[in-house]
Design goal:
There is one protein chain. With about 300 residues, this protein is of the alpha+beta class. It folds into three domains: about 45 residues; about 80 residues, no CATH class; about 120 residues, Roll (Thiol Ester Dehydrase, Chain A). It has seven helices and 15 strands. Strand 13 and strand 14 form a beta hairpin.
């Protein structure tokens, strides 16, 4: 059961929809005059403006139209659900609805995938929310083991509240985390970054000239490109910070690019906490992230990033 989180308040118009979810089915409106399917619930048909609307039960199956991964909770009450996969599903009948994907890793999600409904009784007998998962998954959110709430028991990670300064300081360590999954820095990606940044120097964008005249025999990635790819390279940390409302990139104490990354190179990252301190706005954590070409002991990026939790 969810506690302390905002829940939908049914209106006279939407009450049949919420009542159907409590019965673990999905009822939406259909126009009796033009047969148009309607969602969200309305008093009239948006196509022909008829007031003659009927409630019909549908399967709820559909296609993933788009999604985004939320790393920061919109409200403090949702901090236990990070990461959230927020999505728009196109129902087979046509309407779109906003939802949350459950039971899926980020790598399993792709636009166009078939999805099916999952009923989540967040307040049994009162409120059921409509989630979605992959069509071939079987998810039951109404058992403790399958709850979408992120916890140390389900993620295997130690959770540390950002307000607990002693616990936060216990994260400081000389040893690095495990390596992230590798990511290949392609020439196409380098070219796209050159357009975005305006840095189209030939050592990055002209493979023929770089092969003939360059010191590395090929094009290399911009150092700043490799740096920002740290957000793609999730390190295998055994902890996660919880309880915050906002998380801000406060800058870097040190940023170095010791080794170039040739186009086509796979890279991976590891990290360690170097410092923790309390400031007026919240708690600062200094995270040293090192990005390496796979198999190379010398890093390509060393970044001491300051993260402010508020």
């Amino acid at each position: 059961m969810m506690t302390g989180k905002p829940l939908p308040v049914p209106t006279e118009t939407s009450r049949p929809f919420w009542a159907s979810l409590q019965a673990h089915r999905i009822d939406i409106q259909q126009c009796a005059d033009c047969s148009h399917w309607i969602f969200f619930p309305r008093r009239h048909c948006p196509r022909c403006f008829s007031l003659d609307l009927n409630w019909r039960t549908i399967s709820g199956e559909g296609t993933l139209l788009t999604y985004t991964t939320a790393h920061i909770p919109t409200l403090p009450e949702f901090a236990d659900e990070m990461l959230q996969q927020l999505a728009v599903v196109r129902l087979d009948e046509g309407p779109h609805l906003n939802t949350t994907l459950v039971g899926l890793e980020t790598g399993e999600i792709h636009v166009g995938m078939r999805v099916k409904p999952v009923f989540h009784d967040v307040a049994p007998g009162k409120t059921t929310l409509l989630r979605y998962t992959a069509h071939d998954k079987n998810i039951d959110l109404n058992t403790t083991a399958a709850s979408p709430v992120v916890s140390a028991t389900t993620t295997g990670k130690r959770q540390v509240d950002f307000r607990d300064l002693d616990a936060m300081r216990s994260l400081i360590h000389d040893e690095y985390s495990g390596w992230s999954e590798p990511f290949v820095v392609t020439q196409e990606l380098i070219d796209q970054f050159a357009v975005l940044s305006g840095d189209d120097y030939w050592i990055h964008t002209d493979p023929d000239r770089a092969r003939k005249e360059g010191p590395f025999g090929t094009t290399i990635a911009h150092g700043s490109l490799v740096q920002v790819l740290a957000t793609r390279l999730r390190t295998a940390a055994e902890w996660e910070v919880t309880g915050f409302t906002n998380m801000v990139n406060y800058g870097s104490n040190k940023l170095r690019f010791p080794t170039p990354v040739p186009a086509g190179s796979p890279i991976h990252a590891r990290s360690r906490v170097r410092a923790v301190g309390q400031v007026k706005a919240g708690t600062q954590l200094t995270l040293e992230t090192c990005i390496h070409i796979v198999g190379n002991d010398r890093p390509s990026v060393i970044n001491e990033l300051i993260i402010l939790y508020m």
